[in-house]
Design brief:
3 copies of one chain form a homotrimer. With about 425 residues, chain A is mostly beta strands. Chain A has a single domain, classed as Beta-galactosidase, Chain A, domain 5, CATH 2.70.98.10. In chain A, about 15% of the residues lie in helices and about 40% in strands. In chain A, the strands form 5 sheets. A 10-stranded antiparallel β-sheet of chain A has the order 2-1-12-13-14-15-26-22-21-18, with helices on one face. The longest helix of chain A has 28 residues. The first copy, chain A, is globular and about 70 Å long. The interface between A and B is large, with 37 and 38 residues.
């Protein structure tokens, strides 16, 4: 018996190994790949447009294309920009700015916002330490920018362990570095099998001696002809010591989606104002006012309900009720949701931020004291997946709202009326 | 009566509108235009020489040219430089450094100075926060650099209103940012009508969320064959809140114009030393010494007399009395004049600065306390015009001196002997 | 007698002058020269490979080449890199990073180390002021990087004389600026006479108004076919005031030369731990442990014995005893030797630094208080010469060890057991 068990076990092991080899081979066979940037091999494509014509066996009629270009002049000089046109929408991704997403255009409808910063700013112009640690804002105009990785949130002094093993202090700057680090590797991947998902992968390192050794492997993907995009990120601790991680997906919407009467819809378990200005409207932060001169930003900290797989769904609906943006994500991966309402004038930057995060945007020192900072062990990887969809019919929006109501499931929303101490 | 008045009024309105349309059309018709840089449209000319040959109807014999190039190597790498050769002098303008003017050459006579900084430094190498906030000096070698726009003058802590509406503090760095911001748009304009004035326009934005939203529209212009140039600047508050503005035209002269016996001539209403080193020579700051080892810089704060249109005139005359530079400007626009004498050795940077400004170069905190900071309302624009001329005959210099004496008109010069407290 | 003496003297003077003129002419005649970068003349070669074929009269068979290229993508974008292949080894020099030496390859054996920083980082990505003044580490991965010139060593506040002649304070950042300043001039020189030494000269300026005016003229040279290289540096004070100077040759070795059982061999007169972690192993800092998780860096301050010409010799030997690196230098030029042992895991940056310097790596404030900061008078130049050799036979290593023992000459090594106060 024992002997035949061993035989079975050996056969099983062999089959497993065989399957793994096959699987690895398939990974290559399953997709077309094109490297745009790779600093290790010295590959770097200055300007190139790729489309279905460049890859065998991909449907000719899909009408998608990927264009890599280099911007010039002003603060844009030397910025790498990639425009992923999927046949239904154009997504602009900025390898030079940590694979942030500048904006999305669906025909003439732009998803994004009007920042006082008009150019795609090369990080060489951004001194994160400037203005008491808020220099990050000098480049901030993206639809989606990641805050992190070593730290995110408000500037301020925090403790760290220095090269001598001693406790030291350092100034953390607003929202960390990753949005101002260029990707070291960018690769385009097209699934050979229908629906021929287009994937743009970027690798960004936040790594140094006596500092973090974090690697962000990000993928923005979309199906040709759809108005959906998925962000699939992995953050790995490449070092041999435990490493704190903060990551906030700072997703920003301005006109035309945002205007008076627009509405934020989510299955909210609890909501609390982060600052005094938010306290006065905490009973109904869901509604948006018109651009308002002298408006002081309001920030709300939320916990969201989710389904049994920890998946949640949030929605920003326009005032006419015929356009919306939705985000589906996992609250185990991103337990802290922050709603940022900066309803100032258009000139000053009328915008709302929907911000799923590992933490809230207090300084890391504060977040740590509340136990909201994940720590990655050596070689540990965490995954973060966000699925964005842009809706353009009242029917679809209605379905979404119903789905959110189902997540809420008549459970109460706890409202804390004043900011945390 | 009333009815015919209305008719007249309507006709008048129509004629006004017609005239405006015509005028707008004329603006295009009046000039040749060539865009060299425009980040909004993606235009960027790497290398190009334009001259009368490129534009119809411009006199062939004028001998002017405009050359756009990109510098390479060292700290110059990627610097955009424009050389405007008007037939009598060559003006070098640096779009990458906020449209500063590097120097002017009249045949072999160079207007400018010998800074210890020898290259045209790309701002990527300048950390304004460095050395306790005087990092600006690591790129400083221009004949004319603007200090501003949000702040100018000495480094130091000042108050500002942060994104939460609260009073916060920030470190202001020496002479502000605008000299280290690249122009987002540069356009060459040639008047079709004689004398075919050549205009180089540049737009520089000092703009960000929760910060200033200032736009500098600058024009450097000159008439072919002349040794005059005019700076016509406009600063606009693009934001919807009031915004402080500081602007100093830091115009610097070294050898050969400056040497022992050179003289500063101006209609001085009052003069006061800014620092202790200036106190000892405050009775006669007009004269220049030879390069002096160990010389400590002297700074003098002045009010100047002007004519009934508020126009004043100042002059820097060489020791032989056969070369001079003059500046005509409006004391309502630029009420504060600062004379900077840094008469150290040639190696250390022998130079004098003639600095018309909205303010004196104290920290903004100090200038504000003296009411010397203009505040721009939302959408408000201020204009600043400076006309520079380079003279090369004793006769012309004599005329200039007489004109200055006429402005002084035997009125006294008040001398305050010690620095302001 | 007196008269004939004068005649003899005149003839002697004339002959000396004649010889000097001849010599100057010979300098040109003695070598082939090729300018790769010169910001004063506007010369800049983007990509070029030079070899014996490009120069007349140089042996065809020597197999050397010099390749200039520009790196692209990620933090490497726009970095100038020069690979000097001498037939026996390939030396990679980075003009954009102050002429640092990235690494050396002898066949497949790499001299260098595995930093968590994987790219050749353009200084535009390095904010020296970051992380409390240790931003330098964000670009640190070279085999040999100079620390200096105005200051080197630990970050911290130090006094300096400001532009008004007053004592002021400024934050010194880790290891100074020179490793993050691009060369303004790079020239390749090939000796016409055998052994046709190949010299790569670079000029780096650390110069500004109201700051240092230091010029580093560096030469890396090697003889075709050898595994030796010589660094011949000159630092000149171009200003007219005395100027402090600090210079540390931070030479770093990781795997494969460094591993458990590797050994540092030197004629040590005295050794003292710089930090507490070093104290416990101060009796035998010569031996290296394997990569060790949680290892805290150990730093040792040493004085070395030298021969009658003040020449000393140090050696890093691998564990097998068949590979070694040696450095010969002058202890009058570089009196302070620092041994840095950072025996952490490979991922975290397993490395040892052999660091001949004008000073130890305390903050300049501390070094000054111990009289360890050379001051250059106006126009004064100091020379620094280091000869590196890479050995690959036990016999040669044995000879080297014997030579070091001869320098030690049975004299004692004084061991101070605790760090300086």
């Amino acid at each position: 018996m024992c002997r035949s068990f061993r035989t079975v076990f050996r056969v099983f092991t062999f089959l497993c190994a065989f399957w793994l080899v096959l699987k690895a081979g398939n990974l290559e066979a399953e997709s077309h790949r094109f490297v745009l940037i790779d600093t290790q091999t010295g590959q770097w494509v200055r300007e190139k447009t790729l489309s279905s014509k460049n890859f065998e066996g991909i449907a000719k009629a899909s009408g998608w294309s990927v264009r890599k270009e280099v911007l010039h002049g002003g603060k844009q000089e030397s910025v790498d920009l990639i425009t992923l046109e999927n046949g239904a929408m154009a997504i602009r991704i900025i390898p030079t700015r940590g694979m942030s997403i500048l904006d999305i255009k669906i025909n003439d409808f732009r998803i994004g916002w009007e920042s006082p910063v008009k150019e795609v700013v090369h990080p060489q112009w951004v001194n994160l330490e400037s203005r008491g640690g808020i220099g990050w804002l000098e480049g901030f105009n993206e639809w989606m920018v990641r805050c992190g990785l070593e730290f995110a949130g408000h500037p301020g002094v925090d403790q760290f362990t220095d090269n001598t093993g001693a406790e030291a202090e350092m100034m953390l700057t607003l929202h960390g570095k990753v949005g101002n680090i260029p990707a070291s590797r960018v690769e385009l991947i097209i699934d050979k099998a229908p629906p021929h998902r287009i994937r743009l992968r970027g690798t960004v390192y936040e790594s140094m001696l006596f500092g973090p050794k974090l690697k962000l492997s990000t993928e923005v993907s979309t199906i040709p002809g759809s108005t959906e995009l998925t962000i699939s990120d992995e953050v790995t601790n490449m070092g041999s010591d435990p490493q704190e991680l903060q990551l906030i997906y700072h997703t920003n919407f301005g006109v035309p989606l945002l205007s008076e009467g627009a509405e934020f819809i989510a299955p909210v378990q609890s909501v609390q104002p982060m600052n005094a200005a938010a306290s006065k409207d905490v009973e109904a932060p869901w509604f948006y006012a018109a651009p308002t001169k002298g408006f002081i930003e309001q920030v709300y900290l939320m916990k969201l309900y989710a389904d049994s797989n920890s998946e949640t769904l949030i929605c920003l609906k326009n005032s006419e009720g015929n356009r919306a943006a939705t985000i589906r994500y996992n609250v185990d991966e991103l337990p802290c949701f922050t709603l940022w309402k900066n309803l100032t004038t258009i000139e000053n930057g009328y915008v709302t931020g929907l911000e799923p995060g590992t933490s809230y945007p207090f300084n890391r020192r504060v977040e740590r004291s509340h136990g909201r900072i994940p720590v990655l062990a050596a070689d540990e990887t965490r995954q973060f997946t966000l699925r964005y969809e842009f809706l353009n019919s009242p029917e679809k929006i209605k379905e979404t709202v119903e789905e959110i109501q189902k997540l809420q499931n008549d459970r109460p929303t706890e409202t804390l009326k004043s900011p945390p101490e």
